[in-house]
Amino acid sequence: xxxxxxxxxxxxxxxxxxxxxxxxxxxxxxxxxxxxxxxxxxxxxxxxxxxxxxxxxxxxxxxxxxxxxxxxxxxxxxxxxxxxxxxxxxxxxxxxxxxxxxxxxxxxxxxxxxxxxxxxxxxxxxxxxxxxxxxxxxxxxxxxxxxxxxxxxxxxxxxxxxxxxxxxxxxxxxxxxxxxxxxxxxxxxxxxxxxxxxxxxxxxxxxxxxxxxxxxxxxxxxxxxxxxxxxxxxxxxxxxxxxxxxxxxxxxxxxxxxxxxxxxxxxxxxxxxxxxxxxxxxxxxxxxxxxxxxxxxxxxxxxxxxxx
Amino acid sequence: xxxxxxxxxxxxxxxxxxxxxxxxxxxxxxxxxxxxxxxxxxxxxxxxxxxxxxxxxxxxxxxxxxxxxxxxxxxxxxxxxxxxxxxxxxxxxxxxxxxxxxxxxxxxxxxxxxxxxxxxxxxxxxxxxxxxxxxxxxxxxxxxxxxxxxxxxxxxxxxxxxxxxxxxxxxxxxxxxxxxxxxxxxxxxxxxxxxxxxxxxxxxxxxxxxxxxxxxxxxxxxxxxxxxxxxxxxxxxxxxxxxxxxxxxxxxxxxxxxxxxxxxxxxxxxxxxxxxxxxxxxxxxxxxxxxxxxxxxxxxxxxxxxxxxxxxxxxxxxxxxxxxxxxxxxxxxxxxxxxxxxxxxxxxxxxxxxxxxxxxxxxxxxxxxxxxxxxxxxxxxxxxxxxxxxxxxxxx
Lengths: 308, 396
Description:
The structure holds two protein chains of two kinds.
Chain A: E1 10-19, E2 22-32, E3 37-42, H1 48-55, E4 63-68, E5 81-84, H2 96-106, H3 111-124, H4 140-152, E6 158-162, H5 170-185, E7 189-193, H6 197-203, E8 206-211, E9 214-220, H7 221-228, E10 231-238, E11 247-252, E12 256-261, H8 267-276, E13 280-288, H9 291-307
Parallel strand pairs in A: 3-7, 3-8, 5-6, 6-7
Antiparallel strand pairs in A: 1-2, 1-4, 8-9, 10-12, 10-13, 11-12
Chain B: H1 2-10, H2 13-48, E1 54-58, H3 65-71, E2 73-75, H4 79-87, E3 93-97, E4 107-110, H5 119-137, H6 140-146, E5 156-158, E6 161-163, H7 166-191, H8 195-199, H9 203-209, H10 212-245, H11 263-290, H12 294-309, H13 315-320, H14 325-332, H15 334-347, H16 352-380, H17 390-395
Parallel strand pairs in B: 1-2, 1-3
Antiparallel strand pairs in B: 3-4, 5-6
Helix pairs in contact in B: 1-10, 2-5, 2-10, 7-10, 7-11, 7-12, 7-15, 11-12, 11-15, 11-16, 14-15, 15-16
């Protein structure tokens, strides 16, 4: 793989996908830079998994460009990839270690390295004593850990995680986040499809929100928050908050209030105004709309229709 | 990939249970057969020499009274009386030799001793007549010739060389035997070879780790290796039975030195085997790739087996009139070509020209079907629990 400096590791341009007469993805374009963590968000059926599968060559795109490392992905290209699909499973009737070593060998590790790596990983996640046990005898949480191990075992250059925390309990979720953090620190590029907004806010450098096959938002978390959300301000003060044309009062209590800046007014100018009007401001904290709230805002009507 | 597939199959208890059941059953049957045949042979021998008192009427004049007396018989003149004495159990048996035993039936009447033991009466009646006739001829060798016990050694020539014997037919037919064995043993496994990836939801990881063509080819190779193991396990009791118990099993003595391994039919047979194996394997894998479950995939297996055995419906035509239209159709229709061509190759009616056409056809079709199977696996196996239409796949 020969990528120039600054060239994205993942490049999607004008991607369209139709299954028969049904258009699933429409003119989707995005890039994932080397070393960044990219969040790929969307409601169920918005086309996220279709995009990932098309990127990996599992589906053939109707049109458009989908490149990993400067060219369409193929397993026999020399790209170290870790993929955790949404529909996941393993050879359940085989022993845990045997399956891990098999996939390690397929990914290019020698038998010795595959065994050593697998045992070290199983030790770390507390499943080492079950190395010789059939996978279907492990709990679902243990199986997920094994699956995760297989995903990262070849020190991937690119990690694609489709709903990685699906079915994970809080303990395993934390473990997964730790591992993703480690991979990021090591320079791995991460493309993560998820619904867990707090994880996106914590981990992702940039995000793309997909709705009905069309990108609705694309950029850093801050940019998306700025585009779709608004900034509220939590103020601790003495007395009541006065009214003003500069802001809208969302909540008012004797010693604290929450306000939202009106268009054209910055938090700084509002603070200046309050001080000038003699309000004793004890603390002044900006708070952007969370991605969770933005997600609900964008997809909320779909969810209500689905629930209905 | 091959070593993983082979080792995980060989490690399964179910595999060995299934594999060893067959030779165990064969060994059991052989053992019972040995005991049964040995006991029967002994009893048959005993029957010929059974001693019991009987009377006989001899209208032919062939029966030697001294021999009859030695066997326990005495001559009477009234056949009705003879039957009556047997009916009233005064005597064990009565034989009624007609004027011309060569064209008329010899009547044998005896006290019922059970279906097997009743056979002794006919055995003694026959024995008496044979010994009497031999005695009349006076020359044992002439008597043997008259009995038709003649050994013949037949030799035919083609282009100055010996040919056309059973020794020429058998070696190429080994490939037909191997073909059937492999498909019968492994056919269902080929059909379900990609089911495991589908049922275990491993497909997406596999498709992003391994070229699907490599996966399919790896599975076919590993199936072939497993087939060799199975055939070895099956063949062992047969070989042991032939080597040590041939006489007891009354198996024919096959003189292996009489088998003729001619290069052309052997090469043709081998190529037909490989081509046919490729075609059927590709077909089974393709079907398995679009079926959602192993059970549904297995339903198709019966259809494939029917195609496999179809040429045997016309085997007599293949032997007697290979140029007939039906045989020609079976020779060139891809799914019956392998078996028909192998039979004709063994029987010597295929020829190099026709063989070349059939072999080329098998390899071309086999290659195309394998490519189809790889595509169907690639795009069909992630449909998981849905049956996939091949048209859907081609639209992707």
